[in-house]
Amino acid sequence: MRYALIKNNIIENIIVADYTMANMIGNQDGYDEVINCDNYPVSVEDIYEDGSFLTSKDYVDEEGRVLIPKRTVIQRDTTSEEKYSMLKAENTNMQEIIDQLLIDCLMGGE
To answer: Residues 83, 101: one domain?
Structure first.
């Protein structure tokens, strides 16, 4: 798992470790918090505040227009399992619609 090592609300490092190892490293190196960030596209220098990850800088386009302002909440990515469940439910729903259309066509043709 990926863990963000945080000091003074700033991500100072991101490591890959299990829970026990991540916390041991965090405690030894004097970090304030060690937070699992598996499903968050975070980077070193991003902010962790009040339970949310925030961007640490403005993201701009090639003309300098701000696309994502500093301190924007970084949204959680869906996991593969969550995506699979959503697609499976969507597929089931579409199959029900197709089945009903076929029934309607067959019943209307009589």
So the answer is: yes
Q: For the chain, what is the domain count?
A: 2
The tokens describing 45, both together, are 């220098």
- Give 59's pLDDT tier (boundaries 50, 70, 90): confident
Burial of 37 (0-12, 13-18, 19+ CB in 10 A): buried
In a shared domain, residues 41 and 6: yes
**Residues forming beta bridges with residue 47, ordered by sequence position:** 10, 54
Mapped onto helix, strand or coil, the DSSP state of residue 21 is: helix
Within this chain, do residues 56 and 103 fall inside the same structural domain, yes or no? no
Contact call for residues 54 and 48 (beta carbons, < 8 A): yes
pLDDT range class, residue 110, cuts 50, 70, 90: low
Q: For the whole model, what pTM was predicted?
A: 0.69
